[in-house]
Design brief:
Distance between the termini: 13 Å
Shape: globular
Strand order of the largest sheet: 12-13-14-15-31-25-24-19-22
Pathway: Carbohydrate metabolism; hexose metabolism
Largest sheet: 9 strands, antiparallel
InterPro entries: Ald1_epimerase_CS (IPR018052), Aldose_1-epimerase (IPR015443), Aldose_1/G6P_1-epimerase (IPR008183), Gal_mutarotase_sf_dom (IPR011013), Galactose_mutarotase-like (IPR047215), GH-type_carb-bd (IPR014718), TAT_signal (IPR006311)
CATH class: Mainly Beta
Strand content: 35-45%
Organism: Streptomyces hoynatensis
EC number: 5.1.3.3
CATH architecture: Distorted Sandwich
Oligomer: single chain
Number of domains: 1
GO molecular function, one term: aldose 1-epimerase activity
Structural class: mainly beta
Length: 394
């Protein structure tokens, strides 16, 4: 990725590049979370390298792996597959970490924010923590009011993954989730590949197989602030989402089953607008989530390769994030429950809307909604999902 790269939204060339996965000026001063341009690892690239990031209470070692390519530097933890840091340049070539997180292991063990985490077995919520599959009822941990969220209280985000380098700038994370873990049926063999492309874009490829019928919905929970983590709020970031419909929720954030039109509502991001433009309009759906915490039904639907889903732009830094995915849905979460009680990697407190998430996914509560795209995986089938986070500047 070069700071002056331009990506044309929706263009065939741009989408093809995403599907394929495929003059820094010194800064006078650095904003929070910002490093001077041309940091050594980002300039050199090179093979992935690892270092200790601490130990779990049982003594298990946690590693931090660092990748650099195309001007981007990525740090990933073996614990939770967490994106611990994601550094990209602004329009002037100044590099900043644009993902929220912590500078030590202990806060990741106790926080419930899912900063940067690999989410599974089921991203998002399942009503009552219950579903029925092939006539058999399954009960999951209830960890979000009356519902199960992000795979339960010890989901994939709380597990240590086997990590191996892959290629010039990639990591392969593997884990076998045993039958019955967090109440889910079937032994699930999961592989997730994190790759930095030649342009410095982050590509995530998920695959999974099972030995018994189960449900699967994997995603990543990185919080983005394109001005740099710890720099303040994201309400002035401009967001576009390629979705004409969204899934309204009840007061526990479970979809009602309706696919509602975004037209005439605060949920209309079909043309880019500031995140904060309509967030206080008093719409009942915004009261449920104390802001945006909703699944958008992407117009493209399920696709064989990653296609455009959303664009985020920070006018102050010029950084642009484009999201392309094979998934049919996108959860836009505006960081509503950040309350100032957590200090990030720069030591600054994270307050409401200091970061936002763009989680690619199948829809929440799909196991209980036969009219939603299916999340059932059966023996002999392979779950596949790809998402690309592409960076540019304007």
């Amino acid at each position: 990725m070069t700071p002056d790269r331009r990506t044309v939204l929706g263009s065939a060339a741009s989408l093809a590049a995403l599907a394929a996965g495929a003059a820094h000026a010194p800064a006078a001063s650095a904003a929070p979370g910002t490093a001077s341009a041309g940091h050594e690892a980002g300039e050199r690239g090179g093979e992935p390298r690892s270092e200790s990031f601490g130990r779990l209470p049982d003594g298990t070692q946690v590693q931090r792996w660092t990748l650099s390519r195309g001007g981007t530097r990525l740090a990933v933890l073996s614990y939770g597959g967490i994106v611990q840091s994601l550094e990209v340049p602004d329009r002037r070539g100044r590099t900043a970490n644009v993902s929220l997180g912590f500078d030590a292991l202990d806060p990741y063990l106790t926080a419930t924010t899912y900063f940067g985490a690999l989410i599974g077995r089921y991203g998002n919520r399942i009503a009552g923590g219950r579903f029925t599959l092939d006539g058999r009822d399954y009960q999951l941990p209830v960890n979000d009011g009356p519902n199960s969220l992000h795979g339960g209280d010890a989901g994939f985000d709380k597990r240590v993954w086997e990590v191996t380098p892959s290629g010039r700038a990639g990591l392969t994370l593997r884990r076998v989730s045993p039958d019955g873990e967090m109440g889910y049926p079937g032994t699930l063999d999961v592989r997730v590949d994190y790759t930095l492309t030649a342009d410095g874009d982050l590509r995530l490829d998920y695959t999974a197989t099972t030995d018994a019928p189960t449900v699967v919905n994997l995603t990543n929970h990185t919080y983005f602030n394109l001005a740099g983590e710890g720099s303040g709020g994201i309400l002035d970031h401009r967001l576009e989402i390629a979705a004409s419909r969204y899934t309204p929720v009840d007061d526990t954030l479970i979809p009602t089953g309706e696919l509602a039109a975004v037209s005439g509502t605060p949920f209309d991001f079909r043309r880019a607008k500031p995140v904060g433009e309509d967030i206080r309009r008093g719409h009942p759906q915004l009261h449920h989530g104390q802001g945006f915490d909703h699944n958008f039904v992407l117009d493209k639907g399920i696709t064989a390769g990653p296609r455009h889903a959303a664009t985020l732009y920070d006018p102050a830094s010029g950084r642009v994030l484009e999201v392309a995915t094979t998934e049919p849905g996108l959860q836009f979460y505006s960081g509503n429950f950040l309350d100032g009680s957590l200090n990030g990697t720069t030591g600054r407190a994270y307050r409401q809307s200091d970061g936002l998430c763009l989680e690619t996914q199948h829809f929440p509560d799909s196991p209980n909604r036969p009219d939603f795209p299916s999340t059932v995986l059966r023996p002999g089938q392979t779950y596949r999902s790809t998402t690309v986070y592409a960076f540019a500047t304007r």
